[in-house]
Design goal:
Shape: elongated
CATH topology: Vanadium-containing Chloroperoxidase, domain 1
Structural class: mainly alpha
Strand content: under 5%
Order of helices and strands: HHHHHH
Distance between the termini: 52 Å
Number of strands: 0
Helix content: over 70%
Number of helices: 6
CATH class: Mainly Alpha
CATH superfamily: Phosphatidic acid phosphatase type 2/haloperoxidase
């Protein structure tokens, strides 16, 4: 059964990755670049500051650092635990995958830290700032899905890597959000 899942994962990667075209490659390279989200992060930080003030915003930033550290390091543990080669490093399929950009990334792929981190940010701030806008959470989740898909588009992750990353992002963001909420309720009122 496991071999069947991996086989379907490879087929889906090849299909989705090969939908790409040179005309769209630049767009997806911008989306996948972690620095392109900096304006979004500043916007979220600004809204947090306006909603909660300096002291609580400082605590939120500490929790976001914790969230990303946990998400990122879990991804690394899985990568070195499972040792699943990235599509672009797997000689059995690398010739079937469009590698968009000039680098493949680290050797292992399971699971995508980009997907986990973007979804973690989306869920955490979507929950934190729900009083600011009921549309913020769905917009941020859509952004996280687009970032996650970019990893398949550029040829550095399998769909299963991305889905697992998204799920870990949701899990960690929810836990960290509720821990923050408990802390703020207990010590900051």
């Amino acid at each position: 059964m496991f071999d069947s899942i991996i086989s379907k994962d490879i087929e889906l990667l090849i299909y989705l990755n090969n939908l790409g075209t040179i005309q769209w490659d630049g767009f997806w390279l911008v989306i996948t670049n972690k620095f392109s989200a900096i304006p979004l992060y500043f916007f979220l930080l600004y809204i947090t500051y306006k909603q909660f003030g300096v002291k609580k915003t400082f605590i939120v930033v500490l929790f976001v650092i914790l969230l990303i550290a946990i998400s990122d390091q879990t991804s690394n543990l899985f990568k070195y635990g499972f040792k699943r080669l990235r599509p672009c490093h797997n000689e059995n399929i690398s010739h079937l995958v469009r590698l968009v950009g000039n680098r493949c990334g680290g050797l292992y792929s399971y699971f995508s830290a980009h997907a986990a981190n973007s979804m973690a940010i989306a869920i955490f701030f979507g929950l934190l700032l729900k009083s600011f806008s009921k549309y913020l959470l769905p917009i941020l989740v859509l952004w996280a899905f687009i970032v996650a898909y970019s990893r398949i588009y550029i040829g550095v992750h399998f769909p299963l890597d991305v889905v697992t990353g998204l799920l870990f992002g949701v899990l960690y963001a929810t836990i960290i959000y509720y821990l923050l909420k408990m802390l703020l309720k207990k010590f900051m009122n």
